[in-house]
């Protein structure tokens, strides 16, 4: 009786270990370069429009900004997949003066497909900016922002 | 009393109904009623609900009074700019260990306390079956989990909107979400925690039956959730990660994207249902076959 119970427990444990091993081997990464690029660029553009609205700069639209991102993780030797704090994205966009800008964003990606991105303050401003209407300091929406990748897209 | 159309009481009916009521065997409803009565009398469950009600108000007040933002948790950066961000921040923070603990608080204790107090014999000699006791207790624990989540959600969302305000929310795609639709999304996000919470309740019920120890029944599910949380932060195990019970607690992120996605949400729902079914089945058969001689 005790021996069969031990045997059953051993089998259950072995099956669980095998399932974890198999699913680890069979899994495809949730976090890929394409998904990072396709999440970051439109998110940045949306937030840049909000920054322009706070600063009171007219005529800034998502399509006018035309943001795009080129991302890489940890240099050429590391595969561009998976969570990590070593993702770098070069974001190119048209700024308030319709000049082409290229900013280097540091992106920390968590395993749950959410990320935190921060850009160079030379291009996107300081952590707080002054609201043109109220003349009060408010957080700069593009200075550092949360976002999520879409694991449903290819 | 039933009366006929002429107003004369129908004599035979009460006399016929009375003996039938006396012989009717008590069922799950009876167990449920008793378990709820025990729960209401228990200081721990009452205080837990009181904390669910009051703690969010204190947390929101404290964070609102501070200059710094808890920016290492998602939506922490925005808690000063929108009253819809704070409930999402608390949802993300709470799912780390507070939610599993709430689910385990009653469920981990509900079977093991009978072992602890030696009262199995007392309740099993009543005219209810072991199955009825199992389902009555399981239902009571689930009701507590649902109630605690509802109270926590209502208190968090209510206090955030009152204290911080109803400013538009910035979504996870950088899009500005107007106040009206933000409320719906925040409510839906909290709603997604329901399925994994019921999963944690079932896990705690299983451990309560198996360990026969109230402390282990409450602590082990919390410890397991922390282990799952830790495993979930690792890279390179994306498929394994999807089957963890803690992963569905993150599935609300998709609702707040500019183009919402529901893949993780539906998969998470299936995973929660799977965990619930497996844990309940093991707990049920374990209790049915367990040897209760002591007490």
TrEMBL record, chain B:
Write out the ranges of the annotated region (Disordered).
1-22
One Pfam annotation, family name? ABC2_membrane_4
Q: Say yes or no: keyword Nucleotide-binding present.
A: no
Which top-rank group of organisms is this from?
Bacteria
- The answer to whether keyword DNA-binding applies is no
Where, by residue number, does the polypeptide cross the bilayer?
A: 47-64, 84-112, 133-164, 184-206, 218-237, 261-285
Sorted keywords for this record are: Membrane, Transmembrane, Transmembrane helix
Q: What's the protein here called?
A: ABC transporter permease subunit
């Amino acid at each position: 009786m005790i021996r069969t119970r031990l045997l059953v427990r051993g089998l259950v444990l072995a099956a669980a270990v095998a399932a974890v091993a198999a699913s680890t081997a069979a899994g495809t990464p949730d976090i890929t370069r394409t998904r990072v690029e396709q999440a970051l660029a439109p998110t940045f553009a949306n937030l840049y429009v909000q920054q322009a609205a706070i600063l009171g700069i007219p005529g800034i639209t998502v399509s006018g900004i035309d943001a795009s991102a080129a991302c890489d993780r940890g240099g050429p030797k590391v595969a561009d997949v998976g969570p990590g704090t070593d993702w770098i994205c070069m974001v190119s966009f048209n700024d308030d003066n319709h000049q082409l800008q290229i900013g280097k964003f540091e992106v920390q990606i968590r395993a749950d497909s959410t990320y935190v991105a921060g850009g160079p303050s030379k291009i996107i401003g300081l952590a707080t900016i002054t609201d043109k209407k109220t003349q009060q300091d408010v957080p700069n929406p593009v200075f550092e922002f949360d976002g999520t990748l879409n694991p449903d897209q290819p | 009393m039933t009366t006929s159309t002429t107003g004369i009481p129908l004599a035979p009916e009460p006399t016929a109904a009375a003996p039938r009521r006396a012989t009717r065997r008590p069922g799950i409803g009876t167990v449920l009623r008793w378990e709820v009565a025990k729960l209401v009398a228990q200081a721990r469950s009452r205080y837990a609900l009181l904390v669910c009600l009051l703690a969010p108000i204190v947390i929101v007040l404290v964070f609102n009074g501070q200059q710094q933002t808890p920016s290492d948790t998602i939506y922490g950066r925005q808690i000063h700019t929108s009253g819809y961000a704070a409930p999402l921040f608390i949802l993300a923070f709470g799912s780390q260990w507070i939610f599993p603990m709430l689910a385990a608080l009653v469920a981990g204790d509900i079977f093991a306390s009978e072992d602890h107090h030696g009262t199995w014999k007392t309740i099993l000699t009543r005219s209810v079956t072991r199955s009825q006791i199992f389902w009555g207790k399981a239902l009571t624990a689930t009701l507590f989990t649902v109630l605690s989540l509802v109270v926590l959600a209502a208190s968090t969302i209510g206090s955030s909107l009152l204290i911080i305000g109803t400013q538009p929310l910035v979504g996870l795609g950088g899009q500005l979400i107007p106040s009206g639709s933000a409320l719906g999304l925040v409510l839906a996000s909290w709603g997604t925690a329901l399925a994994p919470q019921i999963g944690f309740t079932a896990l705690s019920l299983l451990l309560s039956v198996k360990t026969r120890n109230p402390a282990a029944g409450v602590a082990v599910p919390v410890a397991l959730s922390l282990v799952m949380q830790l495993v979930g932060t690792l890279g390179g195990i994306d498929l394994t990660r999807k089957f963890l019970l803690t992963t569905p607690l993150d599935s609300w992120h998709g609702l707040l994207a500019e183009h919402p996605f529901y893949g993780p949400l539906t998969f998470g729902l299936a995973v929660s249902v799977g965990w619930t079914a497996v844990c309940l089945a093991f707990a049920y058969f374990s209790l049915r076959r367990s040897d209760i001689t002591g007490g």
